[in-house]
From TrEMBL:
Keywords: Coiled coil, Cytoplasm, Cytoskeleton, Metal-binding, Microtubule, Repeat, Transferase, Ubl conjugation pathway, Zinc, Zinc-finger. It comes from Gymnodraco acuticeps. Residues 111-120, 131-143, 151-161 have a biased composition (Low complexity). SMART domains: BBC, BBOX, FN3, RING, SPRY. Residues 547-740 form the B30.2/SPRY domain. Pfam families: ANCHR-like_BBOX, COS, fn3, SPRY, zf-B_box, zf-RING_UBOX. It comes from the Eukaryota. Residues 90-161 are annotated as: Disordered. Residues 229-271 form the B box-type domain. GO terms for cellular component: microtubule. It is found in: Cytoplasm, Cytoskeleton. This is Probable E3 ubiquitin-protein ligase MID2 isoform X1. Transmembrane segments: none annotated.
Amino acid sequence: METLESELTCPICLELFEDPLLLPCAHSLCFNCAHRILVSHCSTSKPLESISAFQCPTCRYVITLNHRGLEGLKRNVTLQNIIDRFQKASISSPNSPTESRRLQPPQRPYTATISGTIAGTIGGGGGGTSGSSARSSPATSSHSHPHANHTNHANHANHTNANHSPAVVAKMDPRISCQFCEQDPPREAVKTCVTCEVSYCDRCLRATHPNKKPFTSHRLVEPVLDTHLRGLTCLEHENEKVNMYCLVDDQLICALCKLVGRHREHQVSSLTERFDKLKAYQVSPGRVSDAVMEASKTSAAQTLENNLTNLVKRNSELENQMAKLIQICQQVEVNTAMHEAKLVEECDELVEIIRQRKQVIAVKIKESKVMKLRKLAQQIANCRQCLERSSALITQAEQSLKENDHARFLQTARNVAERVAMATTSSQVLIPDVNLNEAFDNFALDFSREKKILEGLDYLTAPTPPSIRDELCTASHDTITVHWTSEDEFSVTSYELQYTIYTGQTNFISLYNSADSWMIVPNIKQNHYTVHGLQSGTRYIFFVKAINQAGSRNSEPARLKTNSQPFKLDPKTAHKKLRLSNDCLTMEKDESSLKKSHTPERFSSTGSYGAAGNVFIDSGCHYWEVLLGASTWYAIGVAYKSAPKNEWSGKNSSSWVFSRCNNNFMVRHDGKEMLVEASLQLRRLGVLLDYDNNSLSFHDAMNSQHIHTFEVSFLLPVVPSFMIWNKSVMILSGLPVPDFVDGLASDLQEQQQQQMGLCRQESPYLTGLKSCH
C-alpha cells in the first residue's frame, strides 16, 4: 500500500492527488498546486491572467495554457476514482498509514483492480465526467455514520458479494435520489439494496434495514441507477430477466428459453457458475498466469486469455509509441523555434547587406555627379570665354565695315580680315566638344537577377536520395567503379560512399547499423568513384549518401561484385612433358618437350601430365573457363597445395576434378568416381569456385548448362589444377560470373545437396575406371 500511495502522491504538496489535472506530458498535478505555481510567477507588472505557460514539476515540459487557463486542462477523473477507492481500502485496514486522513472525495465503484488500473491510467490519463462533478457528493464512511456498526456490516456485505452483482460495475450517478423518501425533493441516496432493488437515503436506510435478520442478508451497494440494478432482459421473452447461460450458443437466456424455447435441449449453466469460471481466467494487466493457462479447458476462456494478453501487449506498445510521439512533438517545437530564429537572423543579415549596398551605391552616384558637373562647368566656362572673344571680333569687324574714311578703312581692314580668317579657321578648336556621356544617362541599376534570387529564397532541405546505376558500374578483380545519379545535384554539397562485404544478410537496416564493418569514402564531388584494393570474386554492399547543410540521405543498397582472381599456369608446377605458351595460358602435351629440373611442386609421375595455377584462393567467388579444343582426355578442378603430384587429380582427398576419358565424363574426389552427363561437343568448360559458400561447380559455358557441383567444406587455400593426356587446353581467367550461373544457383541447390549425399556414399560410385593408356 505504501508503494501504491507513493504513485498517487502529488509531487508538489506530497499528499494524495486532489482534483488532479492531466498535463499534456502525461503527468498529473493537483489543481490547487498548479494554481500556486501560476501565482508564484505573478508580479505587479505580470498579473495572473497574463501567465500562459508553466513547467511540469516532474519532467520540466512546458505546459501551454489557452484563454481558459487551468480550466482548459483535462481533469484526470480516472486517477481521482483510483484515489477514492484507495482511500476507502486504507480506512478498512487498521494498519494503513493513511487511516487517520480525513476523506474528502466521495467513494465511487470501480471496475478493475487498483494496481491494474494504475498501470493503464496514471501514465496515459483517463476520461469521464469533470473533476468538479466527481467531488460533488459528501463522503460516506463509517467514521461519519451515526450507526457505525450497521454501516460496517453493510460494507462487509457489499465487499463479500460485489463480484456477484452486476450493479457494482456501474458508476455512481451523484444525482441518484432516495426512492423511499416522502419529502419533496427527496434526499440523496447513500446505498442501494440489491435485494429490494431500491435506493435509500441514510435516514430511510436505518428505518427500513435494521441490523437484524432477515435484513442482514440484504446486499447493499453504492447508489446505482435502476437500469443497472434491474439487470438484463431476455431478447426473446420480453420482461423476463436472464438468469442462465447457454453453453452451446454462448449467450444469456431466461428460464422460458430453457423450458419452452430453442435452448431446451442445450446444456446450460447458472450465471454465478459461469461468471466464476470465466473470472478465474481474467488476469491483471502486465502478466498472464501459467497455472491459469494450463488449467484452461474451454475455448471461451482461452480466447479471453489470449485477447487479454494481446491487449496488454498492444497497450504497452501504444504507451511506448505515445512516449515517442510526445518526444517528437517536443523536438518539433524546439527545432521550429530554432529555425524561426535562424530565419529572422538570416533575413536581417540580408536586409543589412542591402542597406549597406544601398549606401555604397548612393555614395558612388553622388561622387560621379560631382565629378561630371565639375567637368561640365569647366566646359561651360571655356565656351563663354570663346563666345566673348568671338563677339568682340565681330563687333570690331562690323565697325571696320562701317568706316567711310578710305585711309582709316585700309589701315584696319587688313588686320581685322586676318583676325577673322584666323578665328574662322580655328573655330573647331575654339568650340569645345560636348561629351554626351557626361549626362549620366548611360548608367542603369538592374537588380533583376538579384530579385529572382530573393524570390527563390526558401529553407534548404536534405537532398533526395541518390540512385546507384548498376548498369553503369564496372569492376575488375580488385576494383569497383560505382556510378550514381541525383535529381537535385545543385543542392548537393558532396557525396559519401560506404561499402562493406556482403555476408548474405537480407536485413540491410541492421547491416547498416553495424558501423564497425563499413568503409567510408567522404567528400566526393563527382557522381562516380573507383574503389581500389578490394578482394577478388567478392560481393560488396554499397550505399551513396548525398549531403548538404540541411542533412543527408542514403541511396538504396546496391550489391556489386569484383571479378574473379586472374591467374596463369605456373611453369614451376608443369609436368616435364607439357609445353606452356609464352603467356602461360595454354598447355600442350608434347613427348619431345625439353627436360625440366625436378622441383617438389612439379607434377612428376608418369601419366600425371598436369600443371597448377599461380594463385592460391582462400575467399570469394571465382569463375574461369577452359577452352578444350580437340582434347578428349583431361581432368580439371582445384586442389590443396599439399595434394600429391605423382598421381591423378581426384585420386586423393585433397583434389576435386571434372574429367573426360574419350566418351565418358565423370567427377572424381578421394578416389571415388561418378559418371555425369555432358555433351560430346563440350568445347568450353566453366568452373565456378565459391569458396565462402563451400561449393565447386562445373558448367557447359557454350550451352549454359550445369554439369555437376561439389559441396566441399574447404579447410585450406586451393589452387586451380589442370591435367591433359592429349592435345591442348587454354585458360581464360578473371571473368565475371555469367548470369546463367547465378540464376542456376538457387534452382540447383536442392539437387546439389542430393548429389553431395551420393558423393558421401560408396555404393553409387564406380569403384574403378578403365585404363585409358
